Amino acid sequence: MRQLFLTALLAAGVLGAVHAQNRQLLYDFMEIPQALLLNPGAKAEYQWYAGVPALSGISAQGRASGISVNDLFANDGLDINDKIRDRAINGLKPRDEFGTTVQAELLSGGFRGRERPDNFYSFGIYTLGDAITYWPGDLAELVWEGNAGQLGRRYSLSHLRTRGDVLNVFHFGINRQLDNRWTVGARAKLYSGMVSFRSSTNSGYFLTEPGTNNLLRSILDANMNFRTSGFEAIRRILDDNTADQAAEIRREMVSRGFFGGDLGLGVDLGFTHNLSNRLVLTASLLDLGFLVHSTDVRNFTLQGRGEIEGVEAIFPEALSNPDREFWQQLVDELEGLIPFEENERTYLSFRPTQLYASVRYNFGQKNAGGATSDCNCDYRNGKSAPTPLPDYRSSVGGQLHLVNRPRGPQAALTAFYQRRFWNALALKATYTVDKFSLANLGLGMSLQAGPVEFYFLADNLFGYRNLAASHTQSFQIGLNILSWGRN
Amino acid sequence: MKTTLRFLSGLLCLQTALSCVDSQNFEQLDNLSVTPDMEASLLYVEATEAMINQSAGADFIQETFAFEAFSEQYVADHLLDGVMVYEVENTTSKPLQIVLEFLDASGAVLDSESFRITAAPTAVLRREIPYGGLGGRSIDILRNTAQLRLSATNLGDSTSVSTLPEPKIMLRSSAQFRFELT
User: Fold this and answer.
1) What is the fold, at CATH topology level, of the domain defined by A2-484?
2) Cα distance from A154 to chain B (closest Cα, Å)?
3) Contact B15 A461 (CB under 8 A)
4) What does the pLDDT read at residue A269?
5) How far apart are alpha carbons A37 and B23 in whole angstroms?
6) Which of A172, A232, A409, B56 is the residue whose CA sits 20 to 30 A from A470?
């Protein structure tokens, strides 16, 4: 059982990834319908759209702060042990993190209300896999170097923080243009969890200090937990050598992903406000939600406090101990003080809430205000709509992204430039500063040919010079069929 | 405008098409060696002078007890080398001898350590015994140790009492060992 626990911890470390990626290129890139997923209150100007199943809304991201693959595995002739000691053990801090996020849409679409043309409805299903693991600082050092010669040092158990989920998200959003200044939106989400693990509320320490009777005293004060759901079914399948394991796992995951596993609820909120004809303010709050992990749960805990100074044989009292099983008694006493236990209790997890905000300045007027032949606001069809705002080719601005992480909110700042070329092509360039990079240059493209739209977004372009040395890398790609209001 | 368009489109295509990865050597992991140096107390033995005086013979302790700290499978498999540290302190009025023997599961003696200490007042006797590595005793001694036999002998009289407070003999010990985890 301990091995399973340790294996799970290791898996969490290896698979450790980033929760809720910052998709600064997609945010407010309204030529791409998937931007509605980042701000349900974005200014949607489509009549309808449909993502091509399995080819829309695909995104992936990997990142690691403080260290890169190249730092450890470059073919540089240095000893791997020296590199790990210098660059990881001594180089990383407990706030450094690792990871990847993968998302793919199974279904997506949207349409404008027939009765309420100022309403735009969007819906879909996407699969999301994400996780986060922080560098376990003190614990890594303890495993790498040991506690010898470290009298008085407290190795913090709180440095172990990790969590991750694979889930399906079913969503339905309403976007309403209240007037030509305000657009608001909300999206309801139903989460169907497939697998989950988390260990993010650990505390305590391990300490070695001079003993009272003996030379040393070892103290373990632990309040640790590791919660999982969905893994036991996989383990049972893997243990059954008679089964078609791949098919069984796929069947299990599909079942859990379509309401047969953990369930949760969430909501996204957002708005767009035209401060003036050129100046636009947007913001959104995503994933205000939770998951109840009640199926296939297996939790592990290590809680208590124990102090030992080795086997003690104090005579003449020891003579009254008929078994003389001093070692076993010590082990039993320690296990009694700090029991390693398992349970199947339901637990609750909150989704990593994100906040996006932007200020955009439009320029390069394409059409004057008022009714024009290709105004992209004609879905109102002359209905008592306010005078539409001018349409612009270019915009610059800044974006803020905040995400709630196990070690507190994490921020990213982005400056962007966006340009539309005719009605067929739109480009967005971003420069982002966050804990992973101070020079993250991204570029995105939306290309429309008739009703078919293809988009491709990639960030940290400098990282492509040597992907192994990059601290963050992501791409988003998709294929949609859509109809603009102006089409 | 055309220039901008060409530049941005070209940049995107180029960055994607020309992305590269410096040569990485993941086989370096074969040379990974995680060998933490751990230390902890091992055994503490204490006997009062009153007990020593009340013993019928010269041997006032003769005990064998299970001790599987090193023979636990995981520890035995990963133990590399290390040092056992002993401290003996005698505050009694008589010279004493302590013998600690390492026995395997069948009771065969694998190793022994003998401490002879004069009557109080005397300095604390400290001894470090290396196992494994160059010049150390065989690490297999510890790997196979399943029992300890402790013998303590009174080399003096059985009537005198030390003037020091709470006179007793104390054996303290700790182990500092290196483990190979990978």
Assistant:
1) Porin (2.40.160)
2) 14
3) yes
4) 98
5) 38
6) A409
